[in-house]
Amino acid sequence: MESKAEAISFIEQNSFGALVVNKVAGLSATHIPFVYSESKDGLGFLYSHISVANPQLNEISVQTEVMVIFQGANTYVSSSWYDHVNVPTWNYIAVHVYGKIRIIEGEELIASLGLLVGKHESNSPNAVTMESMPKDFLNSHIKGIIGFEIQIERMEGVKKLSQNRDDKNYKNIISELEKASDGNSGEIAAQMRKMRKVD
Predict the structure, then answer these.
(1) Half-sphere exposure at residue 66, Cβ-oriented, CA atoms within 13 angstroms
(2) Distance of CA 131 to CAs 29, 45, 127, 135, 148, Å?
(3) In terms of Cα–Cα distance, which of 198, 153, 148 is closest to 171?
(4) What are the start-end ranges of the H helices in the chain?
(5) Assigned CATH class of 4-73+93-162
(6) How far apart are CA 51 and CA 127, in angstroms?
(7) The pTM is what?
(8) Is the pLDDT confidence value at 112 over 90?
(9) What residues does 90 pair with on adjacent strands?
(10) Distance separating alpha carbons of residues 55 and 78, to the nearest angstrom
(11) Which of 54, 106, 144, 194 could be a cystine partner for 50, CB 3.0 to 4.6 Å?
(12) Neighbours of 192 (CB within 10 A)
């Protein structure tokens, strides 16, 4: 990806990520929703939470380095769509985020949950808010989670969209993807059109 802004936009649109921690016994991953927050300097922060019953919690301490994987649309590309002999491939978009994790509690945790709920309730006609939940109910449920903040240290965004193909084959790949009935193929085709400005 060409810019920080593009990577952040992708994260915000594909915010269900995989938190990867390097445990003593090996790598572990948890799939959870994240919310991004800007900072005045640096790359910003990610916020989320996991269950207190999640064994990954035992491997998270102050300043533990973690990775979060955000996956977007992806699809198979058949080599039969080319005008020459070649191998099949896979087109995809993804962002990897690396940073230090910090456990948050109290008002910080409430604020992070408010960001997460606010983002995903924004289009609901009867939006739920943290303020609309009974305090006793909210407090009892918060006891079952551990919140955290990740200070982003670097991001790697990848768009593999058949950029190495000439215009003829590139357009044919788009055409074939648009014939498919699944949403992934359609989204990849749309991204390919956008990348090379194909009408």
Answers:
(1) 30
(2) 31, 23, 11, 8, 21
(3) 198
(4) 4-13, 106-121, 135-142, 167-179, 183-196
(5) mainly beta
(6) 24
(7) 0.90
(8) yes
(9) 76
(10) 41
(11) 54
(12) 22
The residue type at 97 = V
d(CA 180, CA 79): 15
d(CA 196, CA 199): 9
DSSP structure string for 168-195: HHHHHHHHHHHHSSSHHHHHHHHHHHHH
pLDDT digits (tens, 9 = 90+) for 124-153: 888 888 888 898 998 899 999 999 999 999
Nearby residues of 8 by Cβ (< 8 Å), 6 or more positions away: 36, 44, 155
If phi over 0 gives left and psi between -120 and 50 gives alpha, with beta otherwise, what is residue 162? left
Structure tokens at 107: 């008002």
Nearest to 184 by CA among 74, 70, 93, 76: 74
Residue 7 DSSP label: H
Nearest residue to 69 via CA among 20, 1, 13: 20
pLDDT tens-place string over residues 50-79: 999 998 877 776 667 899 999 999 999 999
Residue that has been written with the tokens 């790949």 in this structure: 173
N residues, the chain: 199
Q: Look up residue 119 and give its two tokens.
A: 């983002």
Average pLDDT of the residues in 77-87: 95
Rg (CA), the chain: 20
